[in-house]
Amino acid sequence: MKKLSLLMALCVGVFWGAQVHAQKFEELGKTPQMGWNSWNTFGCDISEKMIRDMADVMASNGMKEAGYEYINIDDCWHGERDAMGFIQADKTHFPSGIKALADYVHSKGLKIGIYSDAGGKTCAGRPGSRGHEYQDAITYASWGIDYVKYDWCDTKGINAEQAYTTMRDAIKKAGRPMLFSICEWGDNKPWDWAKDIGHSWRTTGDIYPCWSCEHNHGSWSSWGVLPILDKQVGLRKFAGPGHWNDMDMMEVGNGMTEAEDRSHFSLWAIMASPLIAGNDLRSMSETTRKLFTNKDMIAINQDKLGIQAMKWIDEGDLEIFVKPLENGELAVLFLNRADNAKQVKHDWAFHYLKDDIFKQEVYFDKQLFNWKNVWTGAKGDTKGKLNVTIPAHDVLVLRLTPIK
Ligand code: GLA
């Protein structure tokens, strides 16, 4: 009976979808989304118990208070479609079904995300949404889903903009606000067309837990922190509240050094990327937990202006990024890409900042700032020169507040 009424709603939905220009849910993703996703650590080895565990941990370890909100189930939750074409959860690993899991995650004050794919099959070979978009969206809405990550495998011959628009319209028609996370790897330049379709779009292929490597899988590669960072060139003008460049789920806590994890987290934050943890929250170290819950770093990511950082100064192994913040504040990140420590002498007054895209200009010789080191809490100002040593693969992040 319930399925029948879903089916009727679906027929109306498809008709309506064909008639009316739909929209995305505009109120979502006004700052980059924050949460956790199962893929980086667990791949297909997922279950309702593990997802519940993650919700328990996130709700109680300080992450929820710090702003993490979404518990996202990635690929492989799917079973078969039923006789009417409705997707069902894999009964072995999700015996209680997704609705019960969503209720549980909601009872923890968190939201829940799910994964599908624009093609006939997902990247792990489960049923994709092609030809079932309205049916799937209405199913997710009936389960209480809050977030849809939509992948791009098995899409030969499909137009990306049209495929993502169809799912956007289906979600809108289903009537439940669900953040729409486009995962198309940047192949079809989603930044050119996805602003009104999704709330974020992946800009690259998959991440890999390493500093600067390319991990070759044969027909495709996954990428370390620096290669992903370097692929963001030219994209900052496309990001803003409700439409973010997604640098992929994080690999913090998945085997890199503490300095690399700190740099990875700081870079994703300053680039206004979604902050989606991809480690096992249950067993992470206190160092990793503290890193994820650094309120000052998160505040930079979640700043209401929603401006992605620009690369201000490039001296090879030393790069300096700046993110304009509300009230004339600035976040400044010094990145040491090198394998050895670097002495950084930065004469503020000597360097003028001009952001042509978001129209900001700072004359550091005229406007002085106080700063706070986001990672150590140390304080200082821009009157004198900055003279610090940054360890290999590490960052220095300062929040600058204008002195009136
Ligand atoms: C693609 C995506 C990943 C993940 C897997 C799941 O590779 O880019 O983030 O969702 O598929 O199969």
Question: Would you kindly provide a written description of the structure presented here, covering whatever features stand out?
Answer:
About 25% of the residues lie in helices and about 25% in strands. The protein is built from 11 helices and 22 strands. It is an alpha/beta fold. Helix 1 packs across helix 6 and helix 1 (about 1-20) crosses helix 7 (about 160-175). The protein has helices spanning about 1-20, 40, 50-60, 65, 95-105, 135-145, 160-175, 225-230, 260-270, 285-290, 295-300; strands spanning about 35, 70, 80, 85-90, 110-115, 145-150, 180, 200, 215, 220-225, 245, 275, 310-315, 320-325, 330-335, 340-345, 350-355, 360-365, 370-375, 380, 385-390, 395-400. The mean pLDDT is about 95. The strands form 6 sheets. The protein has an 8-stranded parallel β-sheet. A 6-stranded antiparallel β-sheet has the order 13-14-15-22-19-20, with helices on one face. A two-stranded antiparallel sheet has the order 3-4. The N and C termini lie far apart (about 65 Å). Bound molecules: alpha-D-galactopyranose (GLA). Alpha-D-galactopyranose binds near residues 74, 122, 124, 183 and 206.
